[in-house]
Amino acid sequence: MKKLLVLMALVCAVLNVSAQEDSKWSWKAGIGLSGAAGSDSDGFKSTFSYKVGVGYEYAISESFSIEPAAMLNNKGIKVEGVSGNINRFFLEVPVLAAYKLNLNDNYKLIVNAGPYVAYGLLGSDIEWGGGEAKTNIFDTCDRFEAGLEAGARVVFGEMSVGIDFSRAFTKALKEGNGKVYSQAFGVTFGYKF
After folding, report:
1. Contact of 117 with 90, CB cutoff 8 Å
2. What CA–CA distance (Å, rounded) separates 170 from 167?
3. Residue 153, exposed/middle/buried by CB under 10 A (0-12, 13-18, 19+)?
4. CB neighbours (10 Å) of residue 181?
5. What is the mean pLDDT of residues 6-26?
6. Which residue in 94, 137, 140, 100 sits closest to 117, CA to CA?
7. Which of 36, 74, 76, 192 would bridge with 44, disulfide CB 3.0–4.6 Å?
8. CB neighbour list of residue 123: distance below 8 Å, 6 or more residues apart
9. Domain 23-192: which CATH class?
10. What are phi and psi of 81, to 5 degrees?
């Protein structure tokens, strides 16, 4: 058993050393639409959203990498009975598995997918229709979110442009308030440094 553990540690160390050349930090930013899905999401509408953060591309091989990131993500929504947009700002941490395909000497296509977790940091104060007192959106919505993100991007030099989609598996609303799940679609930009 000890020999197996030592062998596994050596393999991991070799992979780590060989992968360091292609592993890089990057900044990421994106714009798009966020909204809600689910059987009880009829009164919800999509609205403008954005995100910004940093990521790390950890190369396992020439074609495969793991891409963790830390993003500040605004997941806005519109709800019937509330005037204006409702903003929810999350700290989101996706960990994506990525596959790289060389299109030619200058361009690469990267397809990625994986889970994410998010925690609500800030949210809009909202006044419900009928003049009820203002409440914070996180009095109604859950602060914790987990889901799946997938996307594709074209890389040229140190820059990239792509698209992504995310869908939560945890309910957006707190217990007993129906099946509503956050989702977002957007265009992303990145730069490796």
Report:
1. no
2. 9
3. buried
4. 20
5. 56
6. 94
7. 36
8. 86, 87, 88, 89, 136, 137, 138, 141
9. mainly beta
10. 95, -5
* Degrees, nearest 5: CA angle 45-50-54: 145
Tens of pLDDT, residue by residue over 145-187, are: 999 999 999 999 999 999 999 999 998 887 666 788 999 999 9
> How much is the pLDDT for 176?
66
What's the DSSP call for residue 139? Answer: G
Both structure tokens of 28: 């990421």
- What amino acid is encoded at 51 in this protein? K
Which pTM was predicted?
0.81
Question: Is the Cβ–Cβ distance between 186 and 164 less than 8 Å?
Answer: yes
Classify residue 71 by burial, with Cβ atoms within 10 Å: 0-12, 13-18, 19+.
buried
pLDDT, average across residues 97-101? 97
For residues 43 and 80, give the distance between their C-alpha atoms in angstroms, rounded to a whole number.
Answer: 5
Angle at the Cα of 67 from the Cα atoms of 164 and 117, rounded to 5 degrees:
70
pLDDT value of residue 141: 84
Amino acid at 117: V
Structure tokens at 5: 């553990």
| Count of beta carbons in the 10 Å neighbourhood of residue 4 | 8
What DSSP character marks residue 22? T
Q: How far apart are CA 11 and CA 128, in angstroms?
A: 58
Q: Mean pLDDT across the chain, nearest whole number?
A: 85
